[in-house]
Amino acid sequence: MSAASSDAADAASKRPFDSSLADPSPPSKLQRSSQPDILPAEKLESAADGGGTVGPESEAMGGARISRAQRYLVAVEYAGTRFSGSQQQPDKRTVVGVLEEAFQKFIGQPVSVFCSSRTDSGVHALSNVCHVDVERISKRKPGEVLPPHDPGVVKRAVNHFLHKNEGDIMVTDVRCVAPDFHARYKALERIYHYRLLCGPERPSIFEKNSAWHITEDLNIQAMKKACNILVGHHDFSSFRAIGCQAKSPVKTLDELTVTEVFPFMFFPSSLERSEMESPDGSLVYSGASLMGSSGEGSDNSSTTSAKSVSENGQEFGKRLRHRCFVVTARAQSFLYHQIRLMVGLLKVVGTGDKTTADVEKILDAKTVTAAPPMAPACGLYLANVKYDPIV
Fold it and tell me: A single Gene Ontology molecular function, please (predicted)?
């Protein structure tokens, strides 16, 4: 490698990405190793609650490493509303498709991105993880392989091109990993959250496509009891949608909980602010009124209930504050639509349409026809994918 190329690489790692550094030349096809590391067929199953299907051939290629390339582990967050799922699909906007396009603009060559977890259209991700092989070729001396890009350079460069897209996806972390590391099959645990907003009025437009709106009141204690029934090692056939690729419906659900939390658009009243702040100004999450909707002591930054406005003559134009519940599911892997089907059941338990005894019957039925309709995609978030600490 020439001294000029070395100086350029060092400089790139110390400054923001410049789009002029992208290779304007037509992309050339990457060479793949002649002996790909084929993954066992029994691992070709749904690793998450997500969407599109992927055939054995494309999944197997995820274990094949391009010769002389660096494999990167890439964490991304995205709002799933305008994506047709995570997996590549012809003539549709997908997470993988957008990422591959951004990488190609960065390095001037096509790449293949492999996700740890598949997500459906409309499902969001706080952190989905992918791996990608990148071979850094000298632009001045075609054929000369340069040292791999620093992960920080990769993150800034790819985000530069993602930002020019719809701006609804972003790389949050990049690390170099071993040539045989597979984002999907090395995952030890996946965590999902599902948001529900409870209240008679329509949610704020700022909450659009971010939660499932339930107009009825929810009994959180009944929902917690239902969660306890589902946790553990079970045959989850009743929560397995048609099209699931998993060879077995038996899974171990390590955690299923429901918790009431602050609404996303939470603007506290003056009284609530006084209860939330400690003497040093830091937040203290306490005070029963924080979860209420009375709006007592409200000011211009608060929201109040419809009842307070009509009966107490409080300020015109205040919105009802919805109660917000988060269902958390944790396991190594999930069946196709398992989480959304479980949340659909928890919802009808919360409204009183089903009992905890019904939950046991539905689980024992071992058929998806026994389960209530599944929850919509908009409330589901892939929160985290965990790996060995060495990564």
Answer: RNA binding
Q: Where are the domains of the chain?
A: 3-186, 189-266+321-384
CATH hierarchy code of domain 189-266+321-384 = 3.30.70.660
CATH topology of domain 3-186: Alpha-Beta Plaits (3.30.70)
DSSP 246: -
Task: Note down pLDDT in tens along the chain; length 391 residues.
Answer: 444 444 444 444 444 554 444 444 444 333 333 333 433 333 334 444 544 444 444 454 555 555 689 999 999 999 999 999 999 999 999 999 999 999 999 998 899 999 999 999 999 999 999 999 999 988 888 888 889 999 999 999 999 999 998 899 999 999 999 999 999 999 999 999 999 999 998 999 999 999 999 999 999 999 999 999 999 999 999 999 999 999 999 999 999 999 999 887 777 777 777 777 777 766 665 544 444 443 333 343 333 444 444 455 556 887 778 899 999 999 999 999 999 999 999 999 999 999 999 999 999 999 999 999 999 999 999 999 999 986 5
Strand partners, 169: 78
Burial call 239-260: b when 16+ CB within 10 Å, e when fewer: bbbeebbbeebebebeebebee
SS3 label, residue 11: helix
Q: Is the dihedral of CA 221, 222, 225, 226 positive or negative?
A: negative
Residues classed as catalytic: 120
Amino acid code (one letter) for 243: G
Bridge partner list, 234: 251
Number of continuous H segments (helices) and E segments (strands) in the chain: 9, 11
Q: Are residues 238 and 371 in contact, defined by beta-carbon separation less than 8 angstroms?
A: yes
Give CA–CA dist 261/9, Å, rounded.
46
Pairing of strands 113-115, 124-134: antiparallel
* 384 Cβ neighbours under 8 A, 6+ residues apart: 126, 127, 189, 190, 191
Backbone angles phi, psi at 380, to 5 degrees: -95, 135
Neighbours of 10 (CB within 10 A): 10
3-186 and 189-266+321-384: identical CATH topology: yes
